[in-house]
User: Fold this.
Amino acid sequence: MDLKNLYRNSTYFLKFIGAFCILYFGTKAIIGLTVAGGYYSPFVANYLDYPALLRSSLLNGTRLMVGIFGYQTYLRDAYHITMVNGNGVHLVYACLGYGLLSFWIAFIWANNGSWPKKLIWMIAGCFVIWLINVVRISLVLVSSNEHWHLPISMEHHTLFNIIVYIFIFGMIWLFHNSEKKAESRRFDA
Assistant:
């Protein structure tokens, strides 16, 4: 048994699980502290409510995307985007994709590499996940108004998760290839 590899793998696993739990359950805590009633915290609601910013960016991104294709929409409130004279989408916390974002950030954080490189990969990956979510919400909005149906009998959250994980595995492959190239350059120098 190679103790060095065991240590490296254990360290990676603990960093990944720790970061994921902090991000995922931290987001759940923020949500719990920003919803009126229960353990509501005005400070958290006013200064740390990043899930509301994420929702707003998704709704406004969806508004922009469907607008490009000629659909007129409006934001009824902080949770709804609605087609003019049509149906709308209610964007609840489960639709934000914070679990997928937490997974991606934790994966990059736990890996080796310089902090600037990690930051670039975190931002790029989060943008890809955000963009796929905007496309999904846009398709749900347009399909509910155009009476389209999914070609397969699958709920759109499940389909979204499958598609995003395919992209995440592709980004993981790209990240590891970039690490291998960087490592070979260090050994060649």
